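Hi R.,

As promised on Friday, here is the backbone we talked about, encoded as structure tokens. Could you run it through your design pipeline when you get a chance and send me back a sequence?
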């Protein structure tokens, strides 16, 4: 039977007591106490008037998540060992307010958030600004948690004030809220539930829960992951998704890429976790070096599928110094999975299969990194639309860049790094201009098919404008000669057959001919072909790669 998360009524004072005792915890992935003084008074006033204040959501879990030990200066206990703790998912600010109001004790700070009282004459809650004993008609709220002290305090007051005090006490101590407690609920489901009930707040990610589950005063997983990101920043991969690096860390720890593997990080000794992070950092630099120099990816944003990064890191963790044939195999695997969209929907089944394939490759039980991909065909481009941020377009752009395109007008090599990294489309040109095609009855979707898009300089893009290809190609042939233009077009993956169709204004013939050339080049890449040149290769890349590979091997030896 599916779990039922039924709301149960609980007294607000009992909940506050459990927070103060550490039996209900405020996990570190929650925001710290951020309410204003007026919000604190509004909540207390709502309870005093028996207004509803909304339900609360708790998560009971055997995990020992890092939790707050203070609420706006109020120390709370951290007990609860020996039983599953309950963590606040929704209602942290409300529970913190009630706990602070009831359990604050006068100290050295007269301006404390929790120096609260109820004025029995004005019938309102207020913040006091001193540590003096309040006037008799102002009752410190902390006495609501001490019934004998509360009633001694109000015993000698006029009848009306005593009646108001009794009413305040009864309403507070009997006030109930609906509490939903999630039982035995995994990371991912907790995150989804939290996101749906907290649509205007900060989402609760697996990274944040894992951070809380592994936190100590000496170790913060969030900071450790960000140090890995910082090490990749020099090559413009510093803003990669933390979750991808966390998957790589879990794999480096011998667990796997899946979220269930990430959950197991909490059970690792901290020394093992820190070693896995160190290995991931080194392998990530090798992986990014491969992506930039062997594939030609200038930034993390140009990676077709962000999910690709985690397995690439694991490849270089297990194979830090690949030989020539292994490099060709890694390139082949990358292009095959990119062009077929293998990582669009990277589920746990694929994660397990990928890890097994990487291990077999690293152990030389296989010459290839196996992945079940669809066969390459011209349909992949003929049916694809040019959308700058789509994964298919990014893979297509990488393939164009890998051929080393030369500008049709100037003959100079196109700055593919700039073209791939830019967010605008000025480095890409519709060979048959969209406006020209529209005048001949082609819809925008037909004009925007991938084989109609080529990589050019912005200058040529603007010069050709809306002219039909037969016109601007004729000008370039007259100026530079047909053999030179054929050579330049060839670098842009446009064959003489496609050129002939373009000169005749045969749009479909051009698309078909170019799709055939694209397929031939894609098959070459999958066969391990090297790219024409990285967009901006470091002169010291080979030296750096060798040093990093030695680092990884040293780690393995030490282990």
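Update: got your reply. Pasting your designed sequence below so it's all in one thread:
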């Amino acid at each position: 039977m599916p779990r039922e998360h039924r709301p149960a009524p609980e007294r607000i004072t009992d909940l506050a007591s459990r927070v103060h005792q550490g039996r209900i915890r405020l996990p570190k992935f929650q925001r710290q106490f951020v309410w204003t003084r007026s919000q604190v008074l509004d909540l207390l006033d709502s309870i005093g008037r028996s207004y509803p204040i909304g339900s609360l959501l708790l998560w009971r879990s055997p995990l020992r998540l890092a939790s707050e030990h203070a609420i706006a200066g109020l120390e709370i206990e951290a007990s609860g060992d020996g039983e599953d703790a309950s963590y606040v998912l929704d209602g942290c600010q409300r529970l913190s307010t009630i706990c602070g109001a009831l359990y604050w004790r006068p100290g050295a700070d007269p301006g404390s958030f929790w120096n609260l009282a109820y004025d029995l004459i004005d019938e309102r809650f207020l913040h006091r600004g001193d540590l003096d004993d309040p006037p008799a008609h102002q009752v410190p709220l902390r006495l609501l948690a001490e019934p004998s002290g509360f009633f001694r305090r109000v015993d000698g007051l006029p009848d009306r004030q005593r009646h108001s005090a009794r009413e305040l006490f009864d309403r507070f101590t009997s006030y109930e809220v609906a509490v939903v407690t999630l039982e035995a609920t995994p990371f991912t489901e907790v995150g989804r539930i939290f996101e749906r009930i907290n649509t205007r707040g900060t989402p609760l990610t697996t990274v944040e829960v894992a951070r809380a589950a592994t936190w100590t005063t000496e170790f913060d997983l969030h900071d450790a992951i960000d140090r890995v990101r910082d090490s990749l920043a020099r090559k413009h991969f510093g803003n990669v998704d933390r979750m991808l690096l966390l998957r790589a860390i879990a794999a480096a720890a011998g667990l796997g890429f899946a979220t269930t593997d990430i959950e197991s990080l909490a059970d690792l000794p901290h020394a093992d976790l820190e070693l896995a992070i160190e290995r991931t950092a080194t392998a990530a630099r090798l992986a990014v070096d491969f992506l930039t120099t062997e594939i030609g990816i200038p930034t993390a944003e140009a990676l077709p599928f962000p999910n690709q990064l985690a397995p690439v890191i694991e490849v270089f963790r297990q194979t830090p110094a690949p030989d020539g044939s292994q490099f060709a195999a890694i390139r082949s695997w990358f292009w095959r999975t990119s062009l077929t969209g293998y990582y669009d929907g990277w589920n746990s089944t694929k994660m397990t299969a990928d890890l097994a394939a990487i291990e077999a490759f690293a152990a030389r039980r296989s010459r290839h990194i196996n992945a079940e991909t669809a066969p390459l065909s011209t349909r992949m481009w003929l049916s694809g639309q040019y959308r700058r941020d789509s994964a298919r377009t990014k893979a297509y752009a990488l393939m164009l860049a890998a051929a080393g395109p030369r500008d049709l007008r100037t003959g100079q090599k196109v700055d593919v790094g700039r073209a791939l990294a830019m967010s605008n489309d000025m480095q890409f040109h519709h060979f048959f201009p969209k406006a020209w095609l529209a005048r001949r009855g082609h819809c925008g979707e037909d004009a925007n098919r991938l084989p109609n898009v080529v990589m050019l300089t912005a200058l040529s893009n603007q010069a050709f404008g809306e002219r039909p290809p037969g016109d601007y190609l004729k000008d370039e042939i007259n100026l530079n000669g047909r053999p030179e233009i054929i050579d330049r077009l060839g670098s842009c993956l446009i064959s003489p057959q496609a050129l002939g169709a373009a000169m005749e204004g045969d749009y479909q013939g051009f698309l078909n001919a170019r799709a055939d050339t694209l397929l031939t080049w894609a098959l070459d890449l999958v066969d391990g072909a090297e790219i024409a040149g990285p967009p901006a290769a470091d002169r010291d890349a080979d030296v750096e790669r060798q040093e990093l590979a030695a680092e990884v091997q040293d780690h393995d030896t030490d282990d």
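One thing I noticed while checking it: The longest strand covers residues 176-183.

Thanks again,
M.
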